[in-house]
Design brief:
Largest sheet: 4 strands, antiparallel
CATH architecture of the largest domain: 7 Propeller
Distance between the termini: 99 Å
Helix content: under 10%
Number of domains: 2
CATH class of the largest domain: Mainly Beta
Structural class: mainly beta
Number of strands: 18
Order of helices and strands: EEEHEEEEEEEEEEEEEEEHH
Oligomer: single chain
Low-confidence stretches: 1-10
């Protein structure tokens, strides 16, 4: 089974070698001599056929055993800090110093979705089912997005830059680590958040609270079905005056 390694600095060569013999299988050289293109991050595709590498001005997909480049996404004056494949190997997500996380087709480089932070994106990962990605940023947030639309699903705020993020194996939780060495494990799926909230409260929202927090987006209802809800207001009939 091959293992992938990189040499940083002015060498800027990403290499694949055999883990049992140490023999080099393939390598790809970045363009340090002309554009200072370092290699920052690397990852195998799930089937091991391809490798994605993130450099100073680009992210590239190439064949593992030949080193032939398959696709490339180019960044303008920006380093690509983190790259990884989707679980089915069809897509790549890359996080870069232009404040974006991008999802793109692994074999064509065609961009599918783009998500924007307020500072450099330092770490990215796919959920186990490939539906979501998580990104960690120097803007002190970790955010979950829909992979195909780029719609933000959830956000976790730290007190410092978020350097590492990933999903749990069952996809229900995410973990994020910030520069202050604090690690957070958190839920992000709406249904899980509701279930967790219902374990901690003793009643549903009152009508006044519903109007304050939900407004007219949804009709008043029991979010937690096993807990009390404010009853329907029955109007008091106005007595008729007899002449």
């Amino acid at each position: 089974m091959p293992v992938f390694g990189i040499a940083s600095g002015t060498d800027t060569i990403a290499r694949v070698w055999d883990a049992t013999t140490g023999a080099e299988v393939a390598h790809i050289t970045y363009d340090y001599a002309t554009i200072n293109d370092y290699v920052f991050s690397v990852s195998f595709s799930p089937n091991g056929k391809y490798v994605v590498s993130g450099g100073n001005l680009s992210a590239r997909v190439w064949e593992t055993v030949t080193g032939i480049e398959i696709a490339r996404i180019t960044y303008k004056e920006s380093g690509v800090n983190s790259v990884t494949f989707s679980p089915d190997g069809k897509y790549v997500v890359s996080g870069a110093d232009d404040n974006t996380a991008r999802v793109w087709e692994a074999t064509t480089g065609v961009e599918i979705a783009r998500m924007t932070h307020d500072d450099n994106v330092l770490s990215v990962a796919f959920s186990p089912d490939g539906r979501y990605i998580i990104s960690g940023s120097a803007d002190n947030t970790a955010r979950v997005w829909e992979a195909t639309t780029g719609k933000e699903v959830a956000r976790m705020t730290h007190d410092n830059s978020v350097y590492s993020v990933t999903f749990s194996p069952d996809g229900r939780y995410v973990v994020s680590r910030s520069a202050d060495n604090i690690v957070h494990v958190w839920m992000y799926l709406p249904n899980d958040l509701i279930i967790n909230a219902c374990y901690r409260v003793t009643r549903n929202l009152t009508r006044t609270e519903w109007q304050q927090y939900i407004g007219n987006a949804l009709p008043y209802q029991a979010v937690c079905p096993n807990l009390p809800i404010e009853p329907e207001v029955t109007p008091t009939p106005i007595p008729r005056l007899t002449p």
